[in-house]
Amino acid sequence: MTKDKIFKVYLPPILITILSIICAIITNDYIPGGLVLWLGFIAFYYQIKGKWYHYIFSVVYSLVYSMISYLAGLYAYIFFAIIVYIPCYIYGIISWKKKTNNGCVEVRVFNLKTTVVVFSGIIAGGFGLGALMSLIPGQNMAYMDSTIQLFNVAACIFCSLRHRECWYAWMIQNALTLILWTINMLGGATSAIMVLIINVVYCVGNFFAVHEWNKTYKAQKLSNQKIDKNIDFVEDNVVR
């Protein structure tokens, strides 16, 4: 086993586990806070690296986060976890396993027009859903909560379909989530600090993820172009 493999494969998960334990000790929030922190970090790390098995951690994370959201009176996440997130994660396992090349998922991209139309639709949908969620007794900050969940839904779908734009959607979702849970922390919500820590790391990680997926996409595109050229060369010589 080489030092490079130890550094790249084993060290990051170990550091994530140590960080999660330290945060749990400092905040005195082991369950569910410490657990959701570890699940969120470990799933996020493997997702950035394009590994299909990050979805296994994501399923468990979604279940634990649903409990935290319920205690905080944020029901939109629970609704989407049941009908979208968990089914999407299960589909993602199948989709990513089928489209993995050299240990990394094959990346797809939207064009600019599609990106603008889709993201505008998400924002509009957030306001519509917020109006409905505000009718539920005990629902807090309905419009922001709904918009956050719609961006998360879109990102999950984009990710399961292997689209790079999932990370742009998560950038917006994480920024709004930081605002939401800062307000909840000031109101004394359960595990709010842990959720904030997760989303701060997510915000930073999103930029790294965009860089990684762009690099992967360009490398795969170049590889496919070389394969096409080789095929054309062979076909030309066969014809001759």
What does this structure look like?
With 240 residues, this protein is an all-alpha fold. It contains 8 helices and 2 strands, in the order H-H-H-H-E-E-H-H-H-H. It has a two-stranded antiparallel ribbon. A hairpin with a 2-residue loop joins strand 1 and strand 2. Helix 1 (3-27) packs antiparallel against helix 2 (30-48), helix 5 (112-133) packs across helix 6 (142-160) and helix 7 packs antiparallel against helix 8 (192-239). The longest helix has 48 residues, at 192-239. It is globular, with a radius of gyration of 20 Å.
**How much strand content do the residues show?**
under 5%
Radius of gyration: 20 Å
Number of β-strand runs: 2
Biggest sheet, in brief? 2 strands, antiparallel
Low-confidence stretches: none
Strand order of the largest sheet: 1-2
The helix content is over 70%
> What is the string of helix and strand elements?
HHHHEEHHHH
Outline? globular
State the helix count.
Answer: 8
Strand-pairing-aware structural class: mainly alpha
> What's the overall average pLDDT, rounded?
85
CA(first)-CA(last) distance? 49 Å
Distinctive features:
single chain, 240 residues, mainly alpha, globular
